[in-house]
Design goal:
It is found in: Membrane. By secondary structure, the chain is of the alpha+beta class. The protein has 7 helices and 9 strands; from the N terminus they run αβββββββββαααααα.
């Protein structure tokens, strides 16, 4: 299938940037003409279940007066896509993913109740343990879909208790809690070191202690979020607000610490003396990093089914990486890159003028 590579790219991006956790999600899609909409990636066990409920469904075509352009409801639907068979889909040559023999078709719009309800509710049991992705596809060209979607992913144990975390993430609450304790241990060790060297302690050492506190608190909040998500499927219990606050403070403190170290403080001064950072650069980089952190929070809360989600996520990652390089690299190197880029543009402009003149 020629579109399987798109599936693979989306899946790898989600796995390595923001692993999905399978919470209960409600989405409102309005006049969307995308051929594919990625909803969720979830690791199922042999007792996995997925439930999808859609309502207020309408499909319009352009032009609406043409009988030939009426959408075919059998070409619109939801399906599960196993990561195990994604390589085999590259060899399929079919016009629509719903015709693939490698997918688990959940339902098409032919199964909808008649208007005005236009709704459907489907529960599907997964018996083969693997990572699955939920997709919506619309194989009708020039058609726009409007619907309200509610998805629910979970595994069950022997006591028939629902676990809304993906199979590979089910131990995440305890893992975050343990790392929170590890950072508290580092904080205690740091306090002990500072106490033994009181004469040489300054504000920078206190700042590093606060950074450890923020990191420990953010991990503790993350553990609470994952625990509530595991039990209820809903990550919004107030802990997510505290988590984002601590994450934002931690990001700002981390960049301040990086700036101080890069400017040649303390024990690293003999080795990083050349990495002087221009104050004007810092005044630009730190606000940009704060905005990037806020944007990352907003994007993370929105979900992969939003238009341009992958693009904006990639842009934020590039901005954060660029901020790190700008702070850690010497100002002279940054200026050299800017001058070199300007020279390249200048040569390109001269070359284009010569071509046009000939």
């Amino acid at each position: 299938m020629n579109l399987a590579r798109i599936h693979t790219g989306v899946l790898l991006f989600v796995l390595f940037t923001a692993p999905s956790t399978g919470e209960i999600t409600s989405v409102k899609i309005r006049s969307d003409n995308r051929r594919f909409i990625f909803f969720e990636n979830f690791g199922f066990t042999e007792t996995g279940h997925v439930s999808i409920a859609i309502s207020s469904v309408s499909v319009t075509s352009v032009p609406v007066t043409s009988n030939l352009s009426r959408p075919d409801p059998s070409r619109i639907g939801f399906y599960l896509f196993s990561n195990v068979v994604r390589e085999y889909m590259n060899y399929e040559h079919i016009p629509c993913d719903l015709d693939s023999k490698y997918i688990s078709l959940l339902f098409t719009f032919q199964d909808l109740s008649p208007p005005p309800q236009s709704s459907f509710n489907k529960s599907h049991s997964v018996t083969f343990p693997s990572d699955y992705s939920l997709y919506f596809t619309n194989c009708n060209t020039l058609s726009y879909v409007t619907m309200d979607v509610r998805t629910e992913f979970y595994n069950t144990d022997n006591a028939n208790t629902k676990d809304y975390l993906s199979a590979e993430l089910t131990q995440l609450p305890s893992l975050y809690s343990n790392f929170s304790l590890v950072y508290l241990t580092f904080l205690g060790f740091w306090i002990l070191v500072c106490f033994k060297n009181k004469l040489s302690v300054n504000r920078f050492h206190l700042l590093m202690g606060v950074l450890l506190v923020m990191k420990s608190l953010s991990l503790f909040c993350a553990a609470k979020i994952q625990y509530h998500m595991k039990v209820t499927g809903n990550p919004h219990h107030g802990w997510n607000v505290m988590f984002h606050i601590f994450q934002l403070i931690k990001a700002v403190l981390l960049y301040i610490v990086m700036v101080v170290i890069s400017d040649g403080w303390l024990l690293l001064k003999p080795f990083v003396q050349e990495k002087k950072i221009n104050n004007k650069v810092l005044m630009v980089v730190i606000p940009i990093q704060i905005l990037a952190t806020v944007a990352s929070i907003v994007i993370g809360e929105s979900g992969p089914f939003i238009k341009g989600w992958m693009t904006w996520n990639g842009v934020v990652l590039v901005i954060e990486a660029a901020c790190c390089y700008v702070i850690m690299l010497p100002t002279e190197v940054i200026c050299s890159f800017c001058v070199l880029y300007g020279d390249v543009l200048h040569v390109q402009a001269i070359w284009e003028k010569q071509i046009l003149s000939t």
